[in-house]
Amino acid sequence: MESSSQKTEQDLFGVSTPLSIGIEEELLLVDERLCLSASSERLLRDIDPALRSRVSTEIFATQIELKTGICDDATSAAADLCRLRRAIRAEGATLLGAGLHPEDSEEQPALVEKPRYAPVQKDFASLLKTPPCGLHIHVGMPDAETAVRVGNALRYHLPLLQAITANSPFRQGEDSGLASARTAVVRSYPRFEMPRAFRDYEDFRRVADQLIAAAGVDDYTYLWWDVRPHPRLGTVEVRAMDVQPTVTANVAVAALVQALAAKEIDQRATPEICREALEESYYQASRYGLEARLMVDDEIAAPALEVAHRVLAEVRPYAGQLGGEGALDEIERIVREGNGADDQRRIHQAAGMDALLTWLAERSGATAA
């Protein structure tokens, strides 16, 4: 094994601007009835060739992933995502931004056949029933050791990020009782979990190499941890969140993650909370959303709203320096008015499932940022 000081072709830390951001939003494709539509491969064939590097299929043919370039701030990320959503809509597709389709009950979903997905289909077997849509945020890191340290620290913020972004209360037409049923779906998959803290980059590579061997997969990109160093991109990637309907909300979450990463680089202080307690706190957030109680110290839990207000106050100066302070206004709104799960339940209670699907499609189709 190469030492962490040796840069390989798979280690691009420091190549992009430190604390630059990239956003990947997984979105559902639906037809005129707002049922899932297995049209991702057609869309990828038909879309403007200049945009194909920013659009990709997922294992489910009813999903599409939109990816920004390397962005210095929230404004440029929003512009990228708006342009991509407009391009998808121009091909006649309708997008739905939710962790799960609220009504889908497909027993044999259409899957995309690609070499990369072959081991996934083999390992996941009958678990591949419901397409889950996540929001993935990349933050550029200056070097490998900083990436590991920031990744370790961001684990402590995953429960709050989950509480803010939970956006999948309905599954197969019924209220799941969870704020994020998507989390329950992906937690049934192998290698979807909160990682432990790593001592250094060499420790991360050692653990990753052992898990790669145990799983019989090609590389670390098959380790779908909630947060992970991503050497090939030179980033830390946070993956533990439901996608949001609007570009505005997804970019706001990215601005929050970017500011949290900046704060952790600057302060170098983390609480003493074991992985098991963090995992439980993350579950509590997936169950109760903004009504959860979240771990804040080794033996102390606090209401999610209280934690959110404190964290937002702490990261505002960092967001200001990074051009993301305005984007955090959307996080403030979510904390004040409720997250996506709260919104979905309000719409459903007032007007039913058809109205909820229409509302999600309208929100997901709007590209004003």
Question: Keywords for this structure?
Answer:
11 strands, globular, 13 helices, two-stranded antiparallel ribbon, alpha+beta, disordered N terminus, 43% helix
Spell out the helices and strands N to C.
Answer: EHEEHEHEHHEEHHEEHHEEHHHH
Q: What's the CATH C level?
A: Alpha Beta
Number of helices: 13
Q: Strand fraction band? A: 5-15%
What separation lies between the terminal Cα atoms?
45 Å
Largest sheet report: 7 strands, antiparallel
In CATH terms, what is the fold-level topology?
Answer: Creatine Kinase, Chain A, domain 2
CATH architecture: 2-Layer Sandwich
The number of domains is 1
What is the oligomer described by this structure?
single chain
Detail the topology: elements first, then pairings.
Elements lengths: L20 E10 L9 H7 L8 E3 L5 E5 L6 H17 L3 E3 L21 H7 L9 E7 L3 H11 L3 H8 L4 E2 L2 E2 L5 H6 L14 H15 L11 E4 L4 E8 L4 H21 L7 H14 L4 E5 L2 E4 H19 L5 H10 L2 H12 L1 H13 L4
Helix pairs in contact: 2-8, 4-8, 5-9, 8-10, 8-11, 12-13
Question: In words, what does this structure look like?
Answer:
This protein is of the alpha+beta class. It has one domain: Creatine Kinase, Chain A, domain 2. Helix content is 43%, strand content 14%. It contains 13 helices and eleven strands. The protein has helices at residues 40-46, 74-90, 118-124, 144-154, 158-165, 181-186, 201-215, 247-267, 275-288, 304-322, 328-337, 340-351, 353-365; strands spanning 21-30, 55-57, 63-67, 94-96, 134-140, 170-171, 174-175, 227-230, 235-242, 293-297, 300-303. The strands form three sheets. Strands 1, 2, 3, 4, 5, 8 and 9 form a seven-stranded antiparallel beta sheet that branches. A two-stranded antiparallel sheet has the order 6-7. Strands 10-11 form a two-stranded antiparallel sheet. A hairpin with a 2-residue loop joins strand 10 (293-297) and strand 11. Helix 8 (247-267) packs across helix 10 and helix 8 crosses helix 11 (328-337). It starts with 20 loop residues before the first strand and ends with a helix. The model is unreliable at 1-9 (pLDDT under 50).
